[in-house]
Design a protein that fits this description.
Blueprint (H helix, E strand, L loop, with lengths): L2 H10 L14 H6 L1 H12 L7 E6 L10 E7 L11 E6 L4 H16 L4 H14 L5 E8 L8 E6 L2 E3 L15 H7 L22 H6 L7 E2 L2 E2 L2 H14 L5 H10 L2
Antiparallel strand pairs: 1-2, 2-3, 3-4, 4-5, 5-6, 7-8
Helix pairs in contact: 3-4, 3-5, 4-5, 4-9
Length: about 260
């Protein structure tokens, strides 16, 4: 089966494989409007600033066996404090435009029973501003979210910000050394603190969203940000990867899609 025919078969038979809930998108929507959503998703992914130089593809990362994780090297723009770009290494598992569009469409159908662009655009815009559709499996993510132009290094694992135990192995402000960059793409849970960041890529799903959306694992909350959140996010994103539905996106939308 060609890739094009495979994609068509996926679209025509879209259903949710993870939660036991079947999702059948309207055939006329798939034929008439879905291609436009794919183009919009491609536009979102075009801003994936970390996907610059592909170094390797692997399916052997512990916890991610069987998934086509890609190692990228990238540079930031000119940093406002150092006056030069900062370099990073990161493993990513980013969706294709078709996969991202399908996740968005099924999310809106599940939550609003509608694929109106007023809903799908809202979800896509949120994803664009929260992550650009980028899912960091492991490594360094530079962001200038607090001071424009000042690129701060954040350590990610399983789509969530984590914090290093041994501060000597890190730099709060960067730039990071080659040794620190390679350490960042090899970290395990033994290397990080027991409290993690709040938000899960690719749409900043929180523990509160997860629990309100039917999640049952003990992941803590925004004041007790337990390490178990990483396992939950990893499993749900992996479930999404082989499905037409992204549970993390649905859980976010149930609480925030207006």
């Amino acid at each position: 089966m060609t890739k094009r025919l495979y994609t068509l078969a996926l679209l025509l038979g879209a259903y949710m494989a993870g939660s036991g809930q079947q999702v059948q998108l309207p055939a006329d929507y798939l034929h008439d409007s879905f291609p436009t959503l794919v183009k919009k998703a491609a536009n979102v992914l075009s801003s994936a600033y970390m996907a610059q130089t592909l170094m390797a593809v692997t399916d052997t990362i512990p916890g991610w066996e069987g998934f086509p994780v890609q190692l990228y090297a990238y540079k930031t723009g000119i940093d406002s404090r150092t006056g030069r770009p900062k370099k990073a290494l990161v493993y990513l598992l980013d969706p294709s435009p078709e996969k991202l569009a399908m996740w968005v469409a099924t999310t809106c159908w599940i939550v609003k029973k509608s694929t109106s662009s007023s809903y799908t655009d809202q979800v896509l815009n949120w994803v664009m501003h929260q992550s650009g559709g980028q899912f960091p499996v492991k490594g360094v993510v530079y962001e200038d979210q607090y001071v424009k132009g000042y690129q701060e290094p954040y350590l990610f694992k399983d789509g969530v910000t984590v914090y290093i135990k041994d501060i000597a192995s890190w730099s709060e402000h960067g730039p990071l050394s080659e040794a620190q960059l390679h350490f960042a793409i090899q970290i395990g849970n033994k290397d990080i603190k027991s409290q993690t960041g709040q938000y899960a890529r690719i749409c900043s799903t929180t523990r509160e969203d997860y629990l309100a959306g039917g999640g049952t694992q003990d992941v803590g909350d925004k004041t007790d940000r337990r390490l178990s959140w990483l396992t939950v996010v990893r499993k749900l994103y992996q479930q999404a990867w082989n499905s037409s539905v992204n549970p993390l996106m649905v859980m976010w939308a149930k609480q925030h899609l207006k």
